[in-house]
Amino acid sequence: MSDLKHYLRPFWGYIILTMMIKLAGALLELMIPYLMEVMLDVKVPAGDLTGIYICGALMLACAFFCLATNVIANRMSAVSSGKITQSIRHDLFEKLESLSAKQMDKLTTASAVSRLTSDTYNINQFLARTQRLGIRAPSLLIGGIIIMLSLDATLALVLIAMLPIIAVVVYLVTRTTIPLYTEVQNVLDKVVRVVQENITGIRVIKALSKTEDEKKRFHSVNEELTVTDQKAGTIAAITNPCSSLVLNLGLTVVVLVGALQVNKGETQPGMIVAFLQYFTMILNAMMGVTRIFVMWSKGEASAKRVGRVLELPRDLTVEEALGEEKNAPHIEFRNVSFSYTGVGENLTNLSFRLEHGQVLGILGPTGCGKSTILNLLMRLYDPDKGQILIDGQDIRTMDAGKLRQKFGVVFQNDFVTEGTIADNIRFFRDLDDAALERAAEDAQAGFIAQKEGGMNAEVMVRGNNLSGGQKQRLLIARALAANPEILILDDASSALDYRTDANLRRALRQNYRDTTTLLVAQRVSSLRHADLILVLDDGCVTGAGTHEQLMESCEEYRIIAQTQMGDGKGAV
């Protein structure tokens, strides 16, 4: 838990108070066998009824006090562990939000979800159980041994001889299970990923009748998790039986030796009964200590996984600005090259310039680097070579929040949240109803008015009650609502019919004249009126210019245009 120790500091006082209450209860619990020994060996033989009643009353008071302290301390441990875990979970979520796209690619979404849920749960369980057993179990163990030594050193030494054996077992098991529980969490990442993919693609899976194949895929990864967890659990489970065996063997020896001592008159029956009670306490305390070590194995493994994310450095730092260039274009790419993996470039030596209000169209086959240009412009990734400038300022010198406020974005695989249509368009921004209505009108989202409740109509999770075209128009309205400086539409009209697409482009030209637009599309008709069209193939520009220029100079573009629009002069 050393990875997250600074989260414990604000709660040290509260945790210590919890453990002190536990300690008080444990000390009084230790008094019960002693009072019983006094009653049986002193008060009963003397016929002291008053003393018997007093000892009984004191034993009863100790029992009730132990119950009260345990309940109070357990509630306090739940509060502190919950608040600590809440703080860890909050910072972990915040850290995940701040990670670059490159870091998230490496971490994976499934692993992020697993660390945010199951790993933080393991940490919570460790913190709660440690506070419940961390003082009580050692106090009963040590206190019981001390009292047993004072009662009969010979019998106590039998128990003490057993403890090193148990300690070795606990150490070996703990050292083995920590890496195994780390592996369990890693396999759990795979389970989360398979479930996530299945839920996301459930309609495709059913449409292609691949439900049985998905069941087999889940069964495979579930089986791997089960085997790994069973392996870790089997080794961890060795602790309790071994500890019980060793202590019970010691208990057998104690009973035999005690019986001989009573037979010789060297000790009293009450002391043997008290001794057995203390021995039982010590046995239960030892079981509690072993449970702490099992939880520690899980908690430590999870804490390291969470800590590794929290300690990730910011790899998209803000660099020192060297000054803005005068009379610079709105957007400029200068000899930009980039690779996602470092093996083979996804973009090679890309350069272009856009003035305020101009439209850039990007066309090319799947995987040619179209979306990569947009990701680099928003600084989701940094280029390996070259510069990207907005108004003459390198985007690496801009604060990420201020940079991204310039954009209105519709990604290729964008998302809709559960809530109302208005919630989805506003998306936590301070926008009035007039801005929402205007954006919906420009996005050709006339279907909103036809829905019951209009802007207040409910949207299901992932927009499942919307058609593909309705969802795209809702997302376009979200991008337009804040009147962005730069509009990015990544294949955002693929589900729209030609007339709606044409009306959308007309609205953008008329109502967003000062907005610079980057448009990725597969239809030539969607970008034929762009001020600059880039034709990409395998990360390289194979053609650049207006529609008319490319029809003359770029064979690849001409073939696409003629295939889609006949002579390339199709209607707007």
The outline comes out as elongated
Q: How would you state the average pLDDT, rounded?
A: 85
Helix content: 55-70%
Structural class: alpha/beta
Q: Remind me, CATH topology of the largest domain?
A: ABC transporter transmembrane region fold
Q: What is the count of structural domains?
A: 3
CATH homolog superfamily of the largest domain = ABC transporter type 1, transmembrane domain
Question: What is the level 1 CATH name of the largest domain?
Answer: Mainly Alpha
Report low-confidence residues grouped into runs of 5 or more. none
Strand arrangement within the widest β-sheet reads 6-9-10-3-11-12
The total strand number stands at 12
Architecture (CATH level 2) name of the largest domain? Up-down Bundle
Q: What can be said about the biggest beta sheet?
A: 6 strands, mixed
Structural write-up:
By secondary structure, this protein is an alpha/beta fold. The protein has 3 domains: 81-310, Up-down Bundle (ABC transporter transmembrane region fold), CATH 1.20.1560.10; 328-406 and 486-572, P-loop containing nucleotide triphosphate hydrolases (Rossmann fold); 415-483, Rossmann fold, CATH 3.40.50. 63% of the residues lie in helices and 10% in strands. Helix 1 packs antiparallel against helix 2, helix 4 runs antiparallel to helix 6 and helix 19 (547-553) crosses helix 20 (555-565). The protein starts with 11 loop residues before the first helix and ends in a 7-residue tail after the last helix.
